UniProtKB/TrEMBL annotation:
Species in which this protein is naturally found: Kutzneria buriramensis
Family to which the UniProt record says this protein belongs: Belongs to the ABC transporter superfamily.
Domain of life: Bacteria
InterPro entries documented for this protein: AAA+_ATPase, ABC_transporter-like_ATP-bd, ABC_transporter-like_CS, P-loop_NTPase
Name this polypeptide is given: ABC-2 type transport system ATP-binding protein
GO molecular function, one term: ATP binding
Pfam families, per database record: ABC_tran
Keyword annotations from UniProtKB, A to Z: ATP-binding, Nucleotide-binding, Transport
């Protein structure tokens, strides 16, 4: 399947390419006769929050594991923070925080004790800073009150929070979160959104893998859509959502009058839940508004219609027509 590009060939050739926190070219991973990842070219812009979106089994986690040097690619190239992987792991991974396929901790130790062990293994963590860094990370993910309880008594959501706390022990250049809201209640989901926003504001690049469309749309600046092991679209979220057929949503109480006026002008329109849906084919937004005003229709609001991530995802992964 061909990847969708947002930039036409030859356009903006003089503009320098953005710095990338992570990059893959021709990435492929097979397990016997099963192709898990196939020719993935992925760009993660420096400082972006990129959502890796796809159905279960689309290759998201396998791609992440190859990015982090946890799995050897069958073919292709991987760069992380400017260094090839997995050969550059010793240089790059201390600057990367990752939560992949759920956290793993010692069940008979408390959350605080588990986190202290993780902090002690961090090559960039000074020993005198461990206690304060652990306390701050626990507070940041809402586990301060449960910090001294044994890990085996934690709920799935609490285990996810502790895994996130391990990522937040010290400042990172890149944070990778694989299904970070798994097992979380709505309050926990909001906290994950807040943490991602804080990381983004601090200049950290964040890569979030999820199959939850609402979470990607709420937190990400960029999106890469995977389907059957391949990237089928990637780019800035706003640009992807604007890539569908241009249309307007018009809020008006005079639906029938408006429809008649637009049809007289040969402008395609239909009634919608809030008023009118107007296709901008062979016309412009000012021409639509002019036709409605001249017909005497009350126009309360006019806004451009965005494709919506759910519609875009369906188009890319289910073969629905644009």
């Amino acid at each position: 399947m061909t990847s969708t590009s947002l930039v036409e060939p030859g356009v903006g050739a003089a503009v320098a390419a953005p710095a990338l926190a992570a990059r893959t070219r021709g990435l492929r991973k097979t397990y016997g006769s099963t192709v898990a990842v196939d020719q993935v070219d992925l760009d993660v812009p420096d400082g972006a929050v990129l959502g890796m979106l796809g159905p279960n089994g689309s290759g998201k986690t396998t791609t992440i594991r190859m990015l982090l040097g946890l799995v050897q690619p069958t073919a292709g190239e991987v760069e992380l923070l400017g260094h090839p992987m997995p050969s550059g792991a010793q240089i790059t991974l201390p600057h990367v925080g990752a939560l992949v396929e759920g956290p793993g901790f010692h069940p008979f130790l408390s959350g605080r004790e588990n986190l202290r062990r993780v902090a002690a293994a961090e090559p960039l963590m000074a020993t005198p800073a461990i206690a304060s860094s652990v306390t701050e990370a626990l507070e940041r993910v809402g586990l301060a009150d449960a910090a001294d309880r044994r890990y085996r008594g934690y709920s799935l959501g609490m285990k996810q929070r502790l895994g996130l706390a391990a990522v937040l022990l010290l400042p990172r250049r890149l944070v990778v979160l694989d299904e970070p809201t798994n097992g979380l209640d709505p309050a926990g989901t909001r906290e994950i959104r807040r943490v991602i926003a804080e990381l983004h504001a601090a200049g950290t690049t964040v890569l979030v893998s999820s199959h939850l469309l609402a979470e990607i749309e709420a937190t990400c600046t960029h999106v890469a859509v995977l389907h059957k092991g391949s990237v089928v679209a990637q780019g800035e979220l706003d640009e992807l959502l604007e890539a569908g057929a241009p249309a307007l949503l018009v809020s008006t109480p005079d639906v029938e009058l408006s429809l008649d006026a637009l049809r007289d002008k040969r402008i395609a329109a239909r009634s919608s839940e809030d008023g009118l849906f107007v296709e901008l084919i062979g016309t412009t937004a000012p021409q639509v508004v002019k036709a409605l005003v001249e017909a005497g229709a009350s126009v309360h609001e006019v806004r451009r219609r965005r494709t919506g991530l759910e519609d875009l995802f369906a188009q890319l992964t289910e073969g629905e027509p644009r």
